[in-house]
Amino acid sequence: MIPGYFYQPGSSRVQECAARHSGDRIAIYADDECVCESLVETLKVSAHLPGQASELTFTDGARFVPLDVAHRWSFQSGKSSLLASLESNLALIVCALVATPVLLYALLFKLVPGIAVTAVQTMPDAVVEQMGQQSMALIERTVLSPSELSDAQQQAVRDLWQDTLAQLDLSVDKYRIDVYRSDHFGANAFALPHGQVVVTDELALLLAEQPDALRAIILHEIGHVERMHSVRLASQAAVASIAIAILLGDMDIVAEVVLGSGSALMDLQFSQNMEWEADNYALAQLARLGYSGEDFAQALESLVSLDDEQEQSWLKYLSTHPSLQERIEHARTYTPSP
Ligand SMILES: [Zn+2]
Description:
The chain is an alpha+beta fold. Helix content is 53%, strand content 15%. It has 2 domains: 2-87, PH-domain like (Roll); 119-333, no CATH class. The strands form 2 sheets. Strands 4-3-2-1-7-6-5 form a 7-stranded antiparallel sheet, with no helix packed on it. A 4-stranded mixed sheet has the order 8-9-11-10, with helices on both faces. Strand 3 (25-30) and strand 4 form a beta hairpin. Residues 220, 224, 270, 275, 278 line the site of zinc ion. Keywords: Hydrolase, Metal-binding, Metalloprotease, Protease, Zinc. One of its GO terms (cellular component) is membrane.
C-alpha cells in the first residue's frame, strides 16, 4: 500500500488514504473502504520532477498524491526522464541561468541595433515619409493647436528657416517648418523623420530676440533628421519587440508595435549619443555658415532659464544629466574639423 492523499473530483475535500497497485489496476482505500478504482492505462501520471510527488489523475478528475515525494510508479513511462535529468542537473541549470541574460543582452543590445541600423540604411524614402506623416497627423490631432502668434511673428520663423535652408543646400521639397501652440510640449522644437520641423509658439517667443539661437536649435533638429535618429529608434523598437514576441511566442506584441509606432514617436527620447550627434551637426553647420557655437550655447541657456512651471521638454532628457553643462561648454569651445 502507498500512503497519500485523495482529492475528490471538483471539490476541495482531501482524504488521507492509501493506494494499492495490483496488475493493471489501481485502487484507493480510505478507512478500509475503496473510494476509487481504475485501470492503470486510463490514468494520467504527472512528470517526474525532483522533490515533487508523482501524482495520479483519474478520468473523473479525482487525484491521488503519494506522501513520499520520491515515490515513482512502476507503470510510469520514461518520457519525462529527460526533463527530470535536466532538472536535477545542477550544472545545466546554472548554465541556463547564466546563458539566458547573456543571450537576451546579445539579442537586444547587439543583434537588434545591428539589424535596425541595416534596416534604416535600406529603408525606402516612401516608408520614412509615411512614418513621418502618420506620426505628424497623430501629434497634430492630440497635442498641437494652431499657432497664436501674430502673422509677423510666424513669418519671422519661416524667413529664418528659408534663409538657413537655402544656405545649407538641403532639399526644399523634403524639409518644412511649422509653428504650433502646444501645452504638451511647452517651449520646444522637434523634427519628424521625413523632414518636418515643428517649433512651438513658446519657443519662438522665448528666442524672438535671438534669431541666431533659434537657428541653432533648428539646425540641431535637422541634425536628428539627417542622421535618421527617429527612424533608427523606431526600427530598433520594432525589431526588439519582434524578438521579444518570438521569444515569448506572442505575436500580438508585433501588431501593437506596428499600430502604435505613431504614438511611440511622439514622446520619443533620443539617446545621449544621438543628442551629441545632432549638436555636432548643428555646430558644424553654424561654423560653415559663419555663425558660432555661442549661438547654440545661448539657446541652451535660454531654455535652462525657463521657470520651473514652464515646460523644458526640449531639455527634458539631458537636463537630468550632468551633461547639459558639458553641452554648453562643448558648443562654446567647438572648432570644426578641417
Ligand atoms: Zn535633440
